[in-house]
Write a structure and sequence with these properties.
The complex is a heterotrimer of chains A (496), B (389) and C (311).
Chain A (H helix, E strand, L loop, with lengths): L26 H10 L5 H11 L2 H14 L7 H26 L7 H15 E2 L4 E2 L2 H20 L7 H20 L22 E2 L4 E3 L2 E3 L2 H24 L1 H11 L1 H6 L4 H27 L1 E2 L6 H14 L4 H17 L3 H19 L3 H25 L12 H10 L7 H18 L4 H23 L3 H19 L14
Antiparallel strand pairs in A: 1-2, 3-6, 4-5
Helix pairs in contact in A: 3-8, 4-8, 4-11, 4-12, 4-13, 5-6, 5-7, 5-11, 6-11, 8-9, 8-11, 9-11, 12-13, 15-18, 17-18
Chain B lengths: L1 H34 L7 E7 L6 H20 L7 E7 L4 H13 L3 E5 L4 H14 L2 E4 L16 E3 L4 H14 L8 E6 L3 H16 L3 E6 L8 H4 L6 E6 L4 H13 L5 E4 L15 E4 L8 H13 L9 H19 L6 H9 L2 E2 L8 E2 L12 E6 L2 E4 L1
Parallel strand pairs in B: 1-2, 1-3, 3-4, 4-5, 6-7, 6-8, 8-9, 9-10
Antiparallel strand pairs in B: 10-13, 11-12, 13-14
Helix pairs in contact in B: 2-10, 3-4, 5-6, 10-11
Chain C lengths: L2 H32 L6 H19 L9 H28 L8 H22 L4 E2 L9 H4 L1 E3 L5 E3 H23 L1 H11 L1 H6 L4 H27 L1 E2 L3 H15 L5 H22 L4 H15 L14
Antiparallel strand pairs in C: 1-4, 2-3
The chains are: A mainly alpha (496), B alpha/beta (389), C mainly alpha (311).
Chain lengths: 496, 389, 311
């Protein structure tokens, strides 16, 4: 008998990966297991306590904070960003009903958003000469959009999963094309051309909100209107979540066949889910049209859909708190990253923070920091003596940090080509890092960190508009890999 | 692992908040700076352009030209004050443009805005700028109604509007290309507002002279025109392409040729790019003489290509000229001994009078913000080169 | 009956449809095995197109082609396929592997993240301008200029022929691979039931890597084909193409390879005939309406099997 290994251990079942969702386990059991596996320690205790707090306290707290926010800033831009974030939250709420509760993949969702916006624009602009009161328009538009959602869902009842996704995608694209070319609609070339949607010129000069005599003109006023609407819709959705319909939707999502067997009207529920989601999107559309005072078809295309999905899934589909968090993470970071100064601050802080949080034991972290600084200063000194043009540029920020970076990092005078090469090299280096372990990884990290800083200073921060989208992509990849169920998601949401 | 992600997320959130708070104080300090001996400190200009997204080729090019001017201006020590460009990516979406416009309006350091690129975006953002007192000057928004007068003194553009280009091209077709009554002209737009506006105007002009106009439309994202080309009949003498992308015009011309059609391709100013659109026998209308033929501009063009390789687009260089106009305006304000503010920069910009610019034409604005003395030049492509007609 | 118009539209539709079919094939393969909607697939197509463009730049330049055109073409295809395949494998390894057992919607967002990264990374490194296969005297080569004349005076250019023939060749090669080789059999088994295949001793990881490689290589080839016929290369070209690929794959019956090809051809032909006979303005709307009708009549796609739900 050799003293070596015994028979090979039985390989793990494919569905027993780390943190993986278990097939056939419902989300109460899954969350119970998560709690049980959480372990000891201060953080675990904090989390357990936080979970005791009822959810509506969090939402109320959020509402209060959001209401107070405009009072602390005189900067209308921040209020505007807040408004945009609220719009995204509303859209994600509606999408949550369709995707998170009922488990239907709807890829044409923004068409309802556009329908609501165009609906408001047609009823409150010089286009057709109608100037209805907003308090009348909103219910009309919401009901119309919900009906449209119902109609779209009607023929799609038979479709499952990805087939439903594709049909809804078609509807979405169909709407965009109709809006885009709606200024020359004619019936098979037989009648004259009608101008319904203004075509690529959209519908401008839309009226501001006029709530029964109360004129809503400024960004702050719209922010508050949007906040009130969001809280109202949030309350409704929360209550529905606790109701029979909410539970029925969740059972539809978990196992549609079993749900049908238990007597749950599956087809009807799908229609209602679609209609509710569409209605919320229509409401959001009116808000959008009211503030922007113009609507164009470009606003309602796949790009917006992608952002809404990213927010929903990142936050955790099926979780209302996750929607709020996801919208804040995605939209606010996109806006903050527009400015080079802020972006640099975020970049270095997150980088340093991640290293501190993730690298253990402390010895390795110390080696890493000291090594990176040493390599940097050494490289700077070498390049300064050998090739002076390599340090002619300057750091992207000022202040003490800027002078540190100036002395530590290389700044070639024409960094474009080298920067591009370095970017590609950085991508490969980071990928390589994920493959090695232990001390080798720490040592390999030293040049990689320096390279990352080099690429950032010379190439990425110079083009903030492109960089913020690259960073968003990286954030999505990393976060979804680290936590597939989303930041605040329950452990299991599966698509029918 | 999960806790670590949470920690990192928390740190990230704090960083974002810290950065956001930092912005509040930053604009505060610059206000103070522009109060005192202001012409010594850097003055900021905002730029709105579709830097990423489907129109990224146009917007990033516009940004690069403006950046090119500013780096040249700053490099010359005789120029004062130094300038800084703050970019804002609109992705050709008027709603996003409004948000960025709001950020510019709230940023006290910015005294003037270059852009936005699309006419829709101009409609969405100019009210915000008017409220904030900012001048806005576009290098590519050509819708006629934008200078109807409601934004007098606030909105400027240094490219002529569709109301000039349409009739010029129509006249050329009728007189020189001998398009007569009963002939067909196919007008293809790319479903963007630049294109449809121009297509409508020229369609009306031609129809008024009895020419049959075959109005077609294809999405800007489309790459295959062969289906459309097949529709060109024997009596189609000219195909007018008010496209924004020169490479699409080239493709159309090639597919016309490969299908054996004899129609002449006529491109609008958006297709003016000899490196991309060079189908022999085609015509192009453009609002300036060919920059590559002007000796004075040659050095600039070479330097630009060195700094930003990859090619350029026709709507890029006008942004260089706009940056120049702003620089001169700010410089005049400083020479008069005042600190540059939004109001006085706006007033000076309206008085812009550059006798010679990179484009080869002088620049001054009418009362409503259009280019004075705008005219279009017609070019014919012979042996791959643009020849002025 | 205007035969010229008909035949020209037919040829245009088949050419365009072939490109869609190639991209849809790769998409469908990956879906069949992993049930993953790989939205980054279109960006691999873009990378393949850029690789081809890079080769033309290296061997051509503004003056003359230094190299025989046929040799250059072959080199372009091989490099684009290799490059596309490698990128696909890297994306799988680093972005998707950990999410194999996650709820299906998680890899969807990861794919979107990869797509953002690839598109904007390409803009950062390569610039946002439209590049053209044509800029380097390509149009003086026999490929782009010469054409056959079919009856009814319709012209078919060499480029179009290369696209269609190339697609057919690649499809046949793929079918032979999947049906006749050991690895192909393993792929089919894994697509049918991943757990059972693992239990039967198939190395599922390796099969997945091979699938991604082949699918992405096809996308890379499609990139070069597209640019031969339509010349434009730019960082965001993958987005639209990816959307159509997804459409074609699902309309044909997702996971079904002949269905993907059929779906692609259907979309290409519908686009052409809608432009030629109905309205070029509403071409997209007509195509989408048609596809909705197809899906409603056959809910599992044209060649898809109705999913049997096991209780």
């Amino acid at each position: 008998m050799d003293g070596g290994k015994d028979i090979d251990p039985v390989p793990a079942r494919p569905d027993e990966g780390q943190g993986a969702s278990r097939i056939g386990v419902d989300d109460w059991v899954a969350s119970h297991e998560v709690r049980r596996d959480r372990g000891e320690g201060v953080l675990a205790d904090i989390r357990t306590e936080l979970e005791r707090v009822p959810r509506h306290a969090f939402y109320a707290g959020f509402g209060v904070l959001a209401a107070l926010m405009p009072l602390f800033t005189s900067n209308d831009y921040i209020v505007r960003v807040g408004f945009d974030t609220l719009l995204y939250m509303l859209l994600a709420l509606g999408l949550n009903i369709v995707v998170g509760y009922a488990g239907l993949l709807d890829l044409g969702y923004v068409a309802f958003y556009g329908f609501g916006a165009y609906g408001y624009a047609m009823l409150a602009s010089p286009k057709f000469g109608l100037h209805w009161d907003t308090l009348l328009i909103i219910p009309v538009v919401v009901v119309a959009t919900a009906t449209l959602g119902f109609l779209v869902a009607l023929p799609s009842r038979r479709l499952l999963g990805d087939y439903l996704a594709i049909v809804t995608l078609f509807f979405g694209q169909l709407f965009v094309t109709v809006y885009q070319n709606g200024n020359r609609i004619s019936f098979l070339g037989l009648t004259r051309h009608y101008d319904l949607t203004g075509g690529p010129n959209g519908i401008p000069d839309v009226d501001n909100f006029n709530l029964g005599g109360l004129h809503v003109g400024s960004v702050r006023a719209y922010y508050y209107v949007a906040l009130i609407m969001f809280l109202l819709v949030l309350t409704c959705v929360y209550l529905v979540d606790l109701s029979r319909t909410g539970r029925a939707w969740k059972s539809l999502r978990e196992d549609p066949l079993a749900a049908e067997l238990m007597g749950i009207p599956v087809k009807r529920l799908k229609l209602v889910a679609f209609a509710c989601g569409a209605g919320i999107a229509g409401l959001t559309g009116t808000l959008f049209a009211g503030l922007n005072t113009a609507v164009f078809s470009a606003n309602f295309d796949v790009a917006t859909l992608i952002i809404v999905y990213a927010i929903l899934i990142l936050g955790g589909a099926g979780s209302l708190g996750g929607i709020i968090l996801g919208a804040l993470v995605v939209n606010v970071s996109l806006e903050v990253l527009r400015t080079p100064g802020h972006a640099t601050a975020v970049f270095y802080v997150v980088l340093a923070g991640t290293l501190v949080a993730v690298i253990r034991p402390w010895k390795r972290l110390a080696v890493l920091i000291v090594g990176t600084l040493a390599v940097g200063y050494a490289a700077h000194a070498i390049v300064a003596s050998a090739w002076p043009r390599g340090i002619e540029g300057s750091a992207s920020v000022g202040g003490w940090f800027g002078s540190f970076v100036n002395g530590w990092q290389l700044h070639p005078s024409n960094p474009r080509f080298i920067g591009n090469l370095a970017f590609v090299a950085l991508v490969f280096a980071v990928l390589l890092l994920t493959l090695i372990q232990g001390w080798k990884r720490v040592l390999a990290m030293i040049p990689t960190l320096y390279l990352a800083s080099f690429v950032w200073e010379n190439r990425l921060v110079v083009e903030p508009s492109i960089t913020r989208l690259i960073l968003l992509g990286v954030i999505l990849i990393v976060l979804m890999n680290a936590r597939p169920q989303g930041l605040l998601g329950t452990s299991r949401v599966e698509i029918v | 692992m999960v806790m670590r992600v949470g920690l990192v997320a928390l740190i990230g959130a704090m960083a974002v908040v810290a950065a956001g708070c930092g912005s509040g104080s930053k604009s505060g300090t610059t206000t103070a700076a522009s109060g005192g001996g202001a012409c010594s400190s850097t003055v900021s200009l905002g730029m709105l352009a579709p830097i990423t997204g489907p129109a990224g080729s146009i917007g990033s090019d516009q940004l690069h030209w403006a950046q090119f001017f500013i780096s040249n201006w700053n490099a010359d020590s005789a120029n004062s004050p130094k300038l800084k460009l703050v970019q804002g990516d609109t992705q050709l979406d008027p709603a996003k443009a409004s948000t960025v416009a709001q950020s510019f309006a709230s940023n006290k350091a910015i005294v003037g805005v270059i852009g936005p690129a699309g006419s829709d975006e101009v409609e969405a953002t100019t009210p915000i700028f008017v409220k904030a007192g900012l001048a806005t000057a576009s290098g590519s928004a050509t819708r006629v109604s934008l200078t109807a007068g409601k934004w007098k003194g606030y909105f400027f553009r240094d490219v002529p509007n569709d109301g000039v280009q349409g009739p010029t091209d129509a006249d050329y077709m009728l007189s020189t290309l001998k398009v007569a009554k009963g002939d067909t002209v196919m007008v293809v737009d790319d479903q963007e507002s630049y294109s449809t506006g121009l297509a409508d105007i020229i369609g009306t002009e031609l129809k008024g002279k009895g020419v049959t106009v075959d109005r077609e439309s294809i999405s800007q994202k489309a790459t295959d025109f062969s289906s459309l080309v097949a529709k060109a009949s024997g009596s189609t003498k000219v195909v007018f392409l008010p496209f924004q992308l020169a490479s699409q015009a080239q493709l159309f011309a090639q597919q016309l040729q490969s299908q054996g059609k004899t129609a002449i391709v006529f491109g609008s100013d958006g297709t003016f790019d000899s490196s991309k659109f060079h189908a022999n026998g085609s015509y192009i209308s453009f609002f300036a003489p060919d920059v590559t033929t002007l000796a004075a501009a040659k050095d600039s063009v070479t330097a630009f290509n060195k700094a930003f390789p990859g090619g350029t687009s026709p709507f890029g260089a006008p942004n260089y000229v706009l940056a120049q106009a702003y620089a001169e305006a700010i410089s005049s304000v400083c020479k008069a001994g005042n600190a540059p503010t939004r109001d006085n920069v706006r007033a000076e910009l309206a008085k812009t009078n550059l006798s010679d610019t990179l484009l080869g034409t002088p620049l001054s604005f009418t009362a409503n913000g259009d280019v004075k003395g705008a005219k279009f030049f017609i070019f014919k492509i012979e042996n791959g080169k643009y020849v002025t007609q | 009956m205007n035969w010229n118009l008909f035949v020209t539209e037919l040829v245009a539709g088949i050419t365009h449809g072939s490109v869609y079919a190639l991209i849809a094939l790769g998409f469908s393969m990956v879906y069949g095995i992993l049930k993953l909607l790989n939205f980054a697939h279109g960006d691999i197509y873009m990378i393949g197109a850029f690789i081809g463009y890079g080769l033309i730049t290296v061997f051509g330049g503004p003056a003359q082609m230094h190299v025989n055109v046929i040799l250059l073409l072959t080199l372009m295809f091989l490099c684009a396929m290799l490059g596309g395949g490698l990128v696909g494998v890297m994306v799988e390894r680093f972005a998707y592997r950990r999410l194999r057992n996650a709820p299906r919607i998680a890899p969807l967002i990861t794919a979107l993240g990869v797509s953002f990264f690839l598109e904007n990374g390409a803009q950062l490194v390569l610039g946002a301008q439209f590049q053209s296969y044509d800029s380097f005297s390509w149009s003086n080569t026999p490929i782009a200029l010469r054409h056959f004349t079919l009856p009814a005076h319709a012209n078919v250019s060499y480029a179009q022929i290369i696209v269609v023939v190339g697609t057919v060749v690649l499809m046949i090669a793929l079918t032979l691979f999947v049906q006749r080789t050991q690895t192909g059999k393993a792929m089919r088994a894994t697509a049918f039931d991943r757990e059972a295949a693992a239990m039967m001793g198939i190395d599922v990881d390796r099969v997945i890597v091979v699938t991604f490689f082949i699918g992405s290589a096809l996308a890379g080839a499609a990139g070069v084909f597209n640019c031969l016929a339509y010349q434009q290369v730019w960082p965001y070209m993958g987005f639209q193409a990816g959307l159509f690929a997804f459409t074609a794959a699902v309309v044909g019956g997702i996971g079904n390879l002949p269905g993907a090809v059929l779906g692609g051809l259907l979309i290409g032909l519908a686009e052409s005939f809608a432009t030629g006979y109905l309205s070029s303005t509403f071409q997209q709307a007509i195509v989408f309406a048609l596809l909705i009708a197809v899906m409603l009549v056959r809910p599992s796609g044209l060649l898809g099997r109705a999913a049997v739900q096991k209780v």
